[in-house]
């Protein structure tokens, strides 16, 4: 948990979000500024700044990341048509929110977030 982090505030329910799925380790919600017809963020509840800050001890948690994306795709009914997964790393990689997250994008007119 990081006091200034917008995603930590969503995890703590201090800020509202349109939640698609939540369990002990992850929260998944619609992006506020969608870059596609379907645009959901998969966010670990543990505050990890980016992929670049991962430790070996995060192995199991990060293993759940793609499985959670798959689950969200099932919930959103996009498994059949397919989807794009994007993870921006660091400012040079286009990351704006410094809390690791995976973008799930599907539908027409996908632009890279
Ligand atoms: P990134 O550029 O990879 O860091 O992506 C951050 C994403 O978070 C952007 O697509 C934003 O639109 C999204 N975002 C920022 N604030 C919120 C919020 N309060 N609720 C939902 N999505 C948000």
Describe the structure in your own words.
The structure is a single chain. This protein is an alpha+beta fold and 113 residues long. It is built from two helices and five strands. The protein has helices at residues 6-11, 59-75, and strands spanning 19-22, 26-30, 38-44, 84-86, 102-106. Strand 2 (26-30) and strand 3 (38-44) form a beta hairpin. The longest helix is centred in the middle third of the chain and has 17 residues, at 59-75. The chain is globular, with a radius of gyration of 13 Å. The structure holds adenosine monophosphate. Adenosine monophosphate is lined by residues 6, 15, 17, 29, 31-33, 41, 88, 94-97, 113.
Spell out the key features of this protein.
113 residues; binds adenosine monophosphate; 5-stranded antiparallel β-sheet; alpha+beta
Question: What is the H/E order?
Answer: HEEEHEE
> Percent of residues in helical segments?
10-25%
Q: What about the largest sheet?
A: 5 strands, antiparallel
- Compute the separation of the termini in Å: 24 Å
Q: Which class do the helix and strand fractions yield?
A: alpha+beta
Shape: globular
Q: Which spans of ≥5 residues are poorly predicted at pLDDT below 50?
A: none
Strand element count: 5
Strand content: 15-25%
Instruction: Compute the CA-based radius of gyration.
Output: 13 Å
DSSP summary: helix tally: 2
Bound molecules: adenosine monophosphate
**Mean pLDDT, all residues:** 97
Order of strands across the main sheet: 1-2-3-5-4
């Amino acid at each position: 948990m990081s006091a200034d982090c917008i995603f930590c505030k969503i995890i703590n329910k201090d800020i509202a979000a349109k939640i698609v799925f939540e369990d002990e380790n992850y929260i998944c919600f619609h992006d506020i500024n969608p870059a596609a017809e379907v645009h959901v963020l998969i966010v670990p509840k543990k505050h990890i700044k980016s992929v670049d800050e991962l430790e070996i001890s995060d192995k199991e948690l990060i293993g759940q990341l793609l499985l959670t994306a798959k689950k969200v795709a099932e919930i959103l009914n996009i498994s059949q048509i397919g989807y794009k997964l994007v993870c921006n790393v660091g400012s040079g990689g286009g990351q704006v929110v410094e809390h690791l997250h995976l973008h799930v994008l599907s539908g027409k007119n996908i632009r890279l977030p």
